[in-house]
């Protein structure tokens, strides 16, 4: 092939983000944590099957086209420790530094038993090759799906650069009772109807046994569930979770710093500061006789109902209301909930922050920005970020940023860290207090019309290392939940205003063709964003027992 024709398929190699391997600013290892129990010991026993988390890879193949930022994707094989076997290859987009993992496995007994945990496949099926694709690449690629023996499941693909089938000894399939159903997660790369996704367990939560393997799936069309499975932990899920001393050590290393916006008027506070500064408990039918809230919320209802019979509100008196609305950053602390996730192979450390008041929202309509009257205002605002830490090593892999009723997971390779350490930095949006990994404007809407979420650095910084561990159910009586955590009613009253009236006040300043677009976006927002009803506390949220998304 001459140089002219070759240019259609092979473009000059250039440096890509994936050519660099991301490491935490300060290296951590199994020895970084206090001893005790089975946390961060490098291997997890899922019940007859031992697995290890591998993040050292050998590159198999890459393309430089398509995918995020049109930079392509790369496939890797794990570097496998002696005695372990590959369950599948790893892949990620090229627009980020290399930062990922896959599990490798070892049968606790041996392969000579009648029903070992691991078996070789009986064959391979070619599920994709790129012969007909005009994409920039290192070599041809062939992606193979193992054909498992009866009673076994494939957990990943083998990738080669030659058309010959891989050796059957290249990979292992897993006995079906040690597997769980998967679902596709984030898109790695696609071309036409052909797609590559990473996968995760379909059922996720503090009691869900599904274990993410870290492999990827190749799909033609929209086939779901995927052709591969996840692992299942048939052992005790909390067995590899951190103890109290280890939780404290993790938070000493990873507790984030939160920047509040330079124009923020409504600061966080501690829950007890809110209570001791005149917050009131109201009961339906007795609105004229609210009750002061006792320290730690000991007089709050504890029956786990949310029937609208009780709610909290700011103190009586206009001056006191305005004072408490502003919060008290000096008193603020974070409230920590530690829970097992992904079959107990990770610890999710949810870090909650309380604000006495959520300020009015701001909108952007093309080039015009303005405040939305009362829209967005509500008493009592709970926000959180979640650290996802490996129970194999104690390494921080992801951070979840809650953003109103939704949120997003961000890899550690894509977040900001405090200089000289592993403490993430993040930003609280002006008035709405949603959490973002980087400063700037995030617009909740479309076509340059929607709700503004403005973030920036300021002198007001909350160190979440000042924390109270309020729950870690797996530790039993070692962690006592404060009474206010078991208050399931609203932390603020229902706001009595008409959204249509508020919109009319705003829309008279807008060009006619933009009014309906703004109204459509605002009315699609959940009530907690609009401020029509007070939010519930952390324990009432779906993510208390479940995954974040």
Automatic annotation (TrEMBL):
Pfam families: Vps62. This is Vacuolar protein sorting-associated protein 62. PANTHER family: DUF946 FAMILY PROTEIN (DUF946) (PTHR48152:SF3), F1C9.34 PROTEIN (PTHR48152). It comes from Vigna unguiculata (Cowpea). It comes from the Eukaryota.
């Amino acid at each position: 092939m001459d140089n002219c024709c070759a240019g259609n398929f092979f473009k000059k190699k250039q440096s890509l983000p994936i050519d660099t391997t991301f490491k935490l600013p300060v290296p951590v290892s199994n020895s970084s944590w206090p001893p005790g129990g089975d946390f961060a010991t490098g291997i997890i026993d899922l019940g007859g099957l031992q697995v290890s988390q591998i993040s050292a890879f050998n590159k198999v193949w890459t393309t430089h086209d398509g995918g995020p930022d049109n930079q392509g994707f790369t496939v890797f094989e794990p570097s496998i420790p002696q005695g372990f076997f590959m369950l599948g290859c790893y892949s990620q987009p090229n627009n980020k530094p290399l930062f990922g993992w896959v599990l490798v496995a070892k049968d606790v007994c041996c392969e000579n038993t009648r029903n070992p945990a691991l078996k070789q496949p009986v064959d391979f099926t070619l599920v994709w090759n790129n012969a007909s694709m005009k994409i920039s690449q290192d070599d041809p690629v062939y992606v193979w799906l193992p054909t498992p023996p009866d009673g076994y499941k494939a957990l990943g693909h083998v990738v080669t650069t030659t058309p010959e089938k891989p050796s059957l000894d290249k990979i292992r399939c897993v006995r079906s009772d040690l597997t769980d159903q998967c679902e596709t997660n984030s898109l790695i790369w696609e071309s036409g109807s052909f797609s590559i996704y990473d996968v995760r367990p379909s059922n996720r939560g503090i009691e869900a046994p599904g274990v993410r393997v870290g492999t990827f799936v190749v799909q033609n069309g929209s086939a779901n569930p995927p052709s591969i499975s996840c692992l299942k932990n048939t052992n005790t899920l909390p067995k590899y979770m951190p103890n109290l001393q280890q939780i404290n050590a993790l938070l000493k290393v990873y507790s984030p710093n939160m920047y509040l916006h330079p124009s923020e008027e409504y600061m966080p506070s501690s829950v007890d500061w809110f209570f001791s500064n005149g917050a009131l408990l109201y009961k339906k039918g007795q609105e004229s006789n609210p009750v002061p809230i006792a320290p730690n919320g000991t007089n709050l209802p504890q029956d786990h109902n949310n029937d609208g019979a009780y709610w909290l509100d700011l103190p009586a008196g206009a001056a006191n209301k305005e004072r408490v609305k502003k919060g008290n950053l000096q008193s603020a602390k974070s409230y920590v909930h530690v829970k097992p996730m992904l079959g107990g192979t990770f610890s999710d450390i949810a870090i909650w922050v309380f604000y006495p008041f959520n300020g009015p929202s701001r909108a952007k309509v093309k080039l015009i920005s303005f405040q939305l009257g009362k829209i967005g205002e509500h008493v009592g605002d709970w926000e959180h970020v979640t650290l996802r830490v490996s129970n194999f090593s104690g390494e921080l892999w992801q951070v979840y940023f809650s953003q109103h009723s939704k949120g997003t997971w961000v890899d550690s390779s894509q977040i900001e860290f405090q200089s000289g350490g592993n403490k993430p930095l993040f930003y609280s949006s002006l008035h709405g207090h949603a959490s973002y990994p980087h400063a700037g404007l995030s617009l909740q809407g479309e076509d340059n019309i929607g709700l503004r979420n403005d973030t920036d650095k300021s002198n007001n910084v909350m160190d979440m290392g000042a924390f109270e561990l309020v729950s870690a159910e797996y530790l039993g009586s070692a962690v006592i939940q404060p009474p206010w955590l078991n208050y399931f009613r609203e932390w603020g009253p229902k706001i009595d205003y008409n959204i249509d009236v508020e919109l009319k006040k705003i829309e008279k300043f807008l060009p006619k063709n933009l009014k309906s677009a703004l109204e459509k976006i605002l009315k699609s927002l959940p009530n907690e964003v609009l401020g029509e009803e007070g939010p519930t506390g952390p324990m009432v949220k779906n993510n208390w027992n479940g995954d974040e998304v």
